[in-house]
Amino acid sequence: MHVGAPMVFSDALHQALLQAHNPSIVNVSDHVANRGSDKHMAYAASKSALLNLTKSQAKKYAPDIRVNALCPALLEFRDDDDALYRERAIAKSALKRVPGFEVAIEAICYLQSNHYTTGTVLPLDGGRPLGMP
Fold it and tell me: Do residues 18 and 58 lie in contact, with contact meaning Cβ atoms separated by under 8 Å?
């Protein structure tokens, strides 16, 4: 699902995208794609495969269609997330906040509009890789 659907969808829309102004595909992966997950191995592996698909499609479709990916970490909490989970999740980010879905929309708009960006995987993780305690 995380790889097959984007691949089939992109291939099906290829001709239509060629007719568009500034055609672009933005795949949405996950920050676990680059680090793995012992709790969600299949999910992490499929999101990692989506990053490879992104780069492969960027090569295949260039120069006519740009293909990029977004790798968000936590954007919002669910209503049933408890206080301890919320505290620990926020602590993982160097920026120490929950950004909301708006930052993902802004990042997708950037990837969609920038005419010279393709094959890029854009992290949206609040600095998690910095190894905050």
Answer: no
Any idea which residues carry the catalytic annotation?
A: 43
Describe the crossing of helices 4-18 and 41-61 by its angle, rounded to 10 degrees.
20
Query: The domain spanning residue 85 has which CATH number?
Result: 3.40.50.720
The number of domains in the chain is 1
pLDDT at 133: 59
- What is this structure's pTM? 0.90
Q: Could you give the CA distance from residue 61 to residue 63 in angstroms, rounded to a whole number?
A: 6
- Which residues, including other chains, have CB under 8 Å from residue 92's CB and lie 6 or more apart? 73, 74, 128, 132
Range of the domain at 65: 4-130
Say whether 13 sits in a helix, a strand or coil: helix
Tokens of 90: 């926020």
Residue 131's pLDDT band (cuts 50, 70, 90): confident
pLDDT at residue 132 tops 70: no
